[in-house]
Each structure stands twice: as structure tokens, then as C-alpha cells.
What we know:
The structure holds two protein chains of two kinds.
Chain A: H1 4-12, H2 27-61, H3 64-68, H4 84-115, H5 119-134, H6 137-148, H7 170-194, H8 198-205, H9 211-222, H10 224-240, H11 243-248, H12 263-266, H13 272-279, H14 288-315
Helix pairs in contact in A: 2-14, 4-7, 4-10, 4-13, 5-7, 6-7, 7-10, 8-9, 10-14, 13-14
Chain B: H1 31-35, E1 61-73, E2 76-88, E3 91-95, H2 102-109, E4 119-127, E5 130-131, H3 137-143, E6 144-147, H4 158-166, H5 176-189, H6 193-196, H7 209-222, E7 227-231, H8 239-252, E8 257-261, H9 265-271, E9 274-279, E10 282-288, H10 289-294, H11 299-305
Parallel strand pairs in B: 3-8, 3-9, 6-7, 7-8
Antiparallel strand pairs in B: 1-2, 1-4, 4-5, 9-10
Amino acid sequence: xxxxxxxxxxxxxxxxxxxxxxxxxxxxxxxxxxxxxxxxxxxxxxxxxxxxxxxxxxxxxxxxxxxxxxxxxxxxxxxxxxxxxxxxxxxxxxxxxxxxxxxxxxxxxxxxxxxxxxxxxxxxxxxxxxxxxxxxxxxxxxxxxxxxxxxxxxxxxxxxxxxxxxxxxxxxxxxxxxxxxxxxxxxxxxxxxxxxxxxxxxxxxxxxxxxxxxxxxxxxxxxxxxxxxxxxxxxxxxxxxxxxxxxxxxxxxxxxxxxxxxxxxxxxxxxxxxxxxxxxxxxxxxxxxxxxxxxxxxxxxxxxxxxxxxxxxxxxxxxxxxx
Amino acid sequence: xxxxxxxxxxxxxxxxxxxxxxxxxxxxxxxxxxxxxxxxxxxxxxxxxxxxxxxxxxxxxxxxxxxxxxxxxxxxxxxxxxxxxxxxxxxxxxxxxxxxxxxxxxxxxxxxxxxxxxxxxxxxxxxxxxxxxxxxxxxxxxxxxxxxxxxxxxxxxxxxxxxxxxxxxxxxxxxxxxxxxxxxxxxxxxxxxxxxxxxxxxxxxxxxxxxxxxxxxxxxxxxxxxxxxxxxxxxxxxxxxxxxxxxxxxxxxxxxxxxxxxxxxxxxxxxxxxxxxxxxxxxxxxxxxxxxxxxxxxxxxxxxxxxxxx
Lengths: 323, 310
């Protein structure tokens, strides 16, 4: 009750309206405000245009048929099939990259936030992650090709006659593409860890628990939404990356398994991104309709992932402590 | 003249501003008498219709002893040669202005202070005549548990919060059925079981602040400690939750030695049996509660409990 009283008093005096007061601002400030408003609107328009255009084009060309038939090499577009293999390729690559990036990223974040000694080493690790985050994926791809063509990594891909290691496979691409997701996982996990007040850790120590037990039973469960957010962000980046699948996955139309165990994983393939590139006017340009349809599916995947991020991070607020 | 000293203070104790004992200060028992068991009177309450607990009748069994304890953070001395007993059957309240070393002292009792890299400690802390430095620290902290200022349940179910301390390091065993009696017992002792018995599987962070804090007390009691440390456990809570926790602590004092840091002098008066007043890292006065609030020995304690400075 007592809280309402001042409000009512304010109401009687006439509410202040900070929104309208910009009319009295100096001209430079008003121009600045206008520019800021315009920038925001422009972004909205661009985002809306992309989504609407892809929606329009995608729905125009997309059919269930395309989703479930394998692509074929054919000059006649009516016989070139759909993009089942690229869909599977995108899913496989995303899962592979995430499986590698999530544990690595969480481990790095836990070490940085909870140990981080000596501090020069922690700073080194931090800059290492920043370098990885800042490296263009084509550079990662070329570097990966160099590494995975070495005889040491022959088990990742197939070996041609004359012992030349091909170096392109789902395993090779997955290992490299995980580096794209890694900084997101590290960042989100660290942020979540740093948001846990120190008295929560101390409460666990005060029950006679070790640091390891505290991390495992208290901190990691508490940062699970953060890990989820980072991982989902990273998955979106992996699904959208083009350079690494082109250079390290072979960018083949169909999944090409090699003989032996884990044949598909050691074989080459393509993703939705390589499929879109290949079929668009930028690539061979034979089938822009199919490129639009595939691009729409890809956009859908990424938007769904971002939606998942939102969902996870909104749930985070349920578990919070007073600092 | 000390600016903190009110000018009229010299001839007689200043009027107790926040707290009044029902009898005149001069008739409050001397410390020796109090510890001999004759000193506890029948104090009726504080001004304004408050209440306070029955003081412990007999002096408790000594569980911990601080001998010449000094703690410094880098070059800064935070606690200076403090010696204190901690007894089971009693509530010991640490009072004093902010930054006087109360919390530092409390955190040294379970060696939590060692988490602060710059902290160093001298002097001895004995737990049942055993030097705490010679004990495995995880073992010590199960015997001397702690409740913090902010309620901090772990992000798991109510049941698992209590079971956490009972389980092996990092393990999820023993399973629920084996632990259920101990968990329920701890919740009952913390006076929370009646409110949560139906939903032990609910996330603990959904409880109200007062319930969360009692859950933290239950969690600290579940491992059957000998000493329970509380760092301003009620300062983040509403008056009703505070009253429940105070009642709880008075009930618990017979099974566990209780040390509470508090900024709330009324609270110290209501629940403590002995009060230690700290000032700038020194133990200014240690006395039975009625004496501390009725007839403090030093001028500074008199000023502090009468509200002349905070």
C-alpha cells in the first residue's frame, strides 16, 4: 500500500514523459537519436526481407519430395533429385562438431573460471580461444586440410593409391568445425559460472566438499542453461558454415562412405550450405529453385536453434541467488 | 576526547537506546556468577512487546577454543589475538561494527578463510582438544558447518540439497531410500519438514527466502555437526522468517554449539547466551548476554550496545 502512495502523488502532478522531452533537445542530439532509430529500423527491414524472401521463394519451390530424395548428378533438373543427403550431412556435421566442442568448451571454461592458475597461463588460454574465435573458417579449413592429410591422421579419411591421405571426411571436418562452436560454449559457460555468487561455492566447501565435488554437483548443474545456450549458438554457426564443408568434407552431392568401420564418418559428403552454393548462380548455378528450397530449410534449422537458445536462456532466471 | 563517547557517558551508563533489560543494569549478575549457573534471571523482554529466549541454565560443554587467534589479509590485521570458548548448549553471538573482524573470525573456525589467498592466520583453534590445522579440512567442515548471509540452496531438489552433504564426495549414492530418514530428520530439526513434506522433489530455489534459509540450516545440520556457524543468517529475511530462525537456533543450542554473527543487537539479545563484542579486530568484551546489554564492562561496549555508534 505504502508503495502505491508516491505513484498516485506523481499521477496527480501529471506524469512526466521522458519520450516527448527529446523535442527540447539540442539539434545534434536529435539527429543522433534519429540516426539510432533509423539504424534499428534498417536492421529490422533487412532481417524481415531475408526471412520473407526466403519464405516466399522457399515455399514456392519446396516440396516434401525434395526433402526425402537423394540428389543425383544429372543435367536434367527434373532428374537431379532432392537434398536428403545434404540434410543428413548437415545434421551429422553439426552433431559431430557439437560432440567435440561441448565437452572441450565446458572443460576449458571450468578451468578458466574455477582454477585459472597460474594467471599468465589463463591469459594465454583466453587469447588462444579469442584467436580461434576470430579466425575465418576458410583459414581453419585450409589448416585442417594440411593437418589431416598427414599420414598420422590416415584413420580419419581414406587413403588413395600411393598412400596419399585424402584428408577430407566427416571426422576431419567435424574436428575442425568444432573450433567454430568452441568459443561460444566457453563464453556462455564462463559467463554462467561467473554469475554464481562465491557464497554458493563456499556453502558447498562448508559442508566438507572438495572443489571437484562442488564443480560436479553444484556448479555444473547450475550452469547447464548456460552450456545449452552456448552449444545451441555454436550449432547454429556450424550448420551455417560453408568454407569447412567445401574444403574438408569434399562437398560431394551424395554421402560417399568408404569401406571399413565408420565408413560414412570417414567418407565425404555435403551439407545444405555446400548444396545451396553448388546449385546457386554463384556455383554451378544449374538449379536456383533447389538452392532456394535448401536455403529455406537451412534458415529454418538455424532459426529453430536460435529459438531454442531463447527458450533455454529464459528458463535460466528461475534459478538465481542473491549476490 | 573520543568523539564517539557521548559527553554524559562518564558518570553512569547511557540509557540503552535499542534494548532494555527488565531490571536495572547494576543488578545484572556478574560474569562469574552467570557462568556458575546462578546468574540467569527471568528477563521478560525488550521494549515494544518483544520477546527473548530463556537463557541457557548451565554453562555448556566447551567444544571449540580459540587461543590467541590473529588473522591478517596481507599487511592488514583483521583479527588481533582473540581467545574465546565456544560451548554446546549456548548460543554465542559475535557483535561489533562493520569491518571489525566478526565474519573473518567466524570463517576461520571451519578454515574457510583459507580460500582467501591473502589471508594468513596465527594462534590455535581447538575442536574437542584437537588442533583444527591437523585435521583433514573436509572432515573439519563436516563437524563445523556454516550458514551464510544469503540463502544459497543448491540448484537441485529439496531432498538432494540435504542429501548432498550426506553423500560421498561428488557421488549420487547412497540412493534416496537409504537417506530418507536422515533427510527428513534434518528437515524436522530445522522446522521445515511440515511445509515441504509433500514436495521434496521440487527445486529448492523455488522456496521462499525464509524457507531457503531454513533449508540451508537443515543442510548444515544433516551431517550432525558439533558446531554450527551462522553469518548474519537473518539479515536478508523478513521479520517473521527471522523470528522462526531465532526460535530454531535457541532450540538447537543443546545439540550443537552455535556461533552467530549479527549486526542486529536485538537479535543478539534475544537468542544469545554469551556475547562477544569485537572492535577493530580486538575482542573488546566477552560476557553473558544480560551483562553485555545491562552492565557492559568497557566504555566502548557500553556505547555500542546503547547505539552511540554502529
